[in-house]
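Archive entry. Fields below.
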Amino acid sequence: MQSVDLGLDTLPKLLIHNAGAIGSRPAMRHKDLGIWQAWTWAQMLEEVRAFSIGLGELGLKRGDKFTIIGSNRPRLYWAMCAGQALGAVPVPVYADAVADEMAFVLAHAEAMLAVVQDQEQVDKIIAVSDRLPHLGQVIYDELRGLKDYDHGRLIAFEDVQSIGRKKLASDPECLRHWEAGVAAGKGSDLSVILYTSGTTGRSKGVMLTHENTIVSARNANAFDRLDQDEEVIAYLPLAWVGDYIFSYVQSYVAGYCVNCPEAPDTVVQDRREIGTTYAFAPPRVYENVLTLTTVRMADASALKRKVFDFFIAVAGRWGEKILDGEKVPLTARVLYGLGNLFVYGPLMNQFGLSRIRVAYTAGEAIGPEIFRFWRGIGLNLKQLYGQTEASVYISAQPDGEIYADTVGKASPDVEIKISDAGEVMFRSPGVFAGYYKDPDKTAEVLTPDGWVHTGDAGFFDPKTGQLKIIDRAKDVGRLSDGTVFAPKYIENKLKFYPNIREAVAIGAGRDVVCAMINIDLTAVGSWAERNNVVFGSYQELAANPRVYDMIARHIDEVNRSLAEEEIMAGAQIRRFLILHKELDPDDGELTRTQKLRRGHIIDRYAPLVEAFYDGSATAEISTEVTFEDGHKGVIAARLVIRDMQPYPARAAKMERAA
Amino acid sequence: MRAPSSREAALGEVLLAVEDVSLAFGGVRALTSVSFDIRKGEIRAIIGPNGAGKTSMLNVINGFYQPQSGRITFKGKERTSMRPYAAAEGGIARTFQNLALFKGMTTLDNILAGRALKMRRGFFWQLIHHGPALREEVEHRRRVEEIIDFLEIAAIRKIPVGRLPYGLQKRVELGRALAMEPDLLLLDEPMAGMNLEEKEDMSRFILDVNQQYGTTIALIEHDMGVVMDLSDRVVVLDYGRKIADATPDEVKSDTNVIRAYLGEPHGVSV
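PREDICTED_STRUCTURE:
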């Protein structure tokens, strides 16, 4: 195990160290009013320190919890470190959480103080303030819209900093006192509580110590040789462990620069301007970009389309081999070089990936086709497997050992084993300190000798020696005849089609597999435009018979590919329907990190599930939906159910024995 | 920390007064002896059924139409005839019922166009693009960037507005009007043709403009819900005559107003 050296065992200590060692290098940038504003490590220390001392004057002290809500902005990252310098514990909350979810987390964490981005978040806090007896001051970053509010409890970020700066100027002991406070912090201190958007039930507060996150970050940096020259863009939710480690802890440890986008919808342009070298994204991001490309290409001229298709085929054939440094024929190299000139290079540049060295996908399984596409055009895309409870890293793929269907080898210092029940378990220095105020849940997951139950079913692939994740352990079921039914496996196959945004496969304990489909409005909408299909809403488009025909063709192809795999052949999709609304985290159908909440969906759409299995050709459904401002409405629809013809299992392709 | 409630006390002096204005196109009387005022810092709505004379009223205010009789006093100065150019220089900006943007130009350039009146350096200075001209341009660009940030349209900064969806084009047009830093902002049906979400966004921007920049706003709107939520005071026109002038709540229960709206496709579902 690598120990935390130089006594740099907390994030504020790392900040002070960096401000001295690499003080003039950029630590953070933020695009504001169209221009990138930069802060060096020395400047960032000054900002954090002023805010931290200001927080102290407001009464924040060691052990207190405080919340951070908003999008990726330097001040919110500074607030985390500023609080930690006092020994207080930040509790970031998803910025798009509805007021009720926010109230639960803030009340459970007993947050004393809130640092929020803007009026939207202030309004939410006001709406639930009677449920938050502990909450005192609310500090905001943007004044806009807040001018007329009662400022009894509201205070501006810069005002807190000027309290700090005044104190620093007037009290000669202040600086020494603050630094002594930082020095008193220990690696074993609680550094953050991250509430997981669990796929089941209320979220749990995962407690991570400074040592957990710093050792994990240090190992990860060493694994991919990340140093102070990296440029990353911070765009994932602050409350997600991935962003915490990647945009905060790893940056402090390596000394690299974190760039905050101008607005959530400018990330692609901002990434292009910065030229990130290291990226971390859930599969959905890679999927969306690919969907966007496919849609745009479908609208391009015939010549462009031909060139694109030709070189993408070349990339599919040779790209990965070239990336992995394998030997390929000269003609392949020449063709690939041309492809790079005409297609791959411009494409990578378009998405701001020209300078990228390492890109990770994590959070969920990625469709193998999507994975191969990106690697084919030269993106060093790798998979990793992690959890909040592990400070992210459990396993990752080393360079040159990349497979579409594995999640890599155990990360440095991590031990992995498979339990008798087939569940993946791990032990590492990143293992969390427990769920906040929930020892029962902690005991369920964390064994006395330090092993953590991941809840995922998996196995070590005998061919590659890498870990393979099949599905959530509790989701892997069997059909009534005993056939293995891995819903996510089927759903991922469906989701590769740009027209399918989300899919829910149902079949555990049933005699056949059925699927509910969400179409992708961008892709199908563009198709509709080109094919003169008129539609007024998502619901109308989803119910269109020609859209049904198109989805039926995709499902047919999925069935054919399932038939080629021995263990999956019995789980082909027999019936499907297209849902009348998009699955949405506000309705509890997806988690905030956009994972399916299968159990909830099956309950919510029980009439549809029933109709699948009683042979009806249509099904009535009316669902309550929550709008962005929290008020509720009802959407009703009559949905058509289509039957599909399964393929016979193909004996010839049965190499992959169970 | 509660949200703001009563604003009546905050309203300032009269910014614009319309007295006894009548406008006719040949035999059609568009406005008949209409009088009302707009006070500094308020959001003033002008409502009425189709053909009530709302847009005519707006066109009279910014000098596009010349009324046959009546007086208009703006910032304490009376004027009977005025050109739109003079109105713009005097601090009146507007948006249009049917967008009037430069479709081939980017969002940024469209909003910069709103700064044209504020440019002090002439054509040749700008051609030289050095010293004072450059400094001035940087300053204009900064103002425009503030508006882009304010209206949350950074992602479409460099996109030609012709390619944007309607709701966003409306927002760009508002941005161009704001670039003039007007004292009085006239909005002609800012929510026409928008869906609920776009309307909510636009309402928020209108309130924020009023609050942040202290801009006085006069708006015409069909959506009664929007009018009632946004405005401080409401003028109701019907067949070119003023039939009510009161707070939204009072207007809602006014029998004349209800009568004017009955049989109209919009109804008074407020």
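CURATOR_NOTE: The first strand of chain B starts at residue 14 and ends at 25.
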